[in-house]
Specification:
It is a single chain. The protein is built from 5 helices and 3 strands; from the N terminus they run H-H-E-H-H-E-E-H. It is of the alpha+beta class. The protein has one domain: Orthogonal Bundle (Arc Repressor Mutant, subunit A), CATH 1.10.10. The protein has a 3-stranded antiparallel β-sheet with strand order 1-3-2. Strand 2 and strand 3 form a beta hairpin.
Length: 108
């Protein structure tokens, strides 16, 4: 990715910003914050998108550590459902000054 090679703090910030840079992903974060754990089909249905599209965006959020998932198997129905919940509970405050300070700290 484009942020590789930056210091750790900048890498984490870039990954977080990249994951939150799409309106649908922001809607997913808001949905999970307000409703708690939901499974993929529920998320897709509530947001009015396909499961495939929801899954693509959920994977991006999961890779950034913003959401986490777990699979629940219903053996009697031979069904496996992937549930997602919000993992990240922080606040994001960013400014040019903060970025500049992080860059300076990376220089050592």
């Amino acid at each position: 990715m484009w942020w590789e090679g930056l210091c750790r703090e900048l890498e984490e910030l870039a990954l977080l910003l990249d994951a939150l840079s799409h309106p649908l992903r922001l809607r997913i974060v808001a949905l999970l914050w307000s409703r708690g754990e939901l499974y993929l089909a529920e998320i897709a249905s509530i947001l009015g998108v396909s499961r495939a599209l929801a899954k693509i965006h959920l994977k991006k959020l999961e890779a950034a550590g913003i959401v986490e998932s777990r699979v629940v198997v219903e053996e009697e129905r031979a069904v496996a459902r992937r549930f997602y919940r919000l993992r990240w509970g922080g606040e994001l405050c960013i400014s040019p000054g903060k970025v500049a300070r992080l860059l300076e700290s990376c220089k050592g």
